[in-house]
Amino acid sequence: MNTNNGNNISDLVPMSRPRIMARAALLELRKNPNMTYGLLVVMFMVLLALAAPILFSIDPQKLTPLDKFISPSSQYWFGTDHLGRDVYSRVLYGSRISLTVAGSVAASATIVGIFFGIVAGYDYRMDAVIMRVVDGLMTIPTILLGMAFMALLGGSVQNIIIALTITQSPVMARVVRSSTLELKREQYVDAALAMGATPIR
Question: Of 21, 25, 69, 174, which one has the greatest count of Cβ atoms within 10 A?
Answer without folding.
Answer: 174
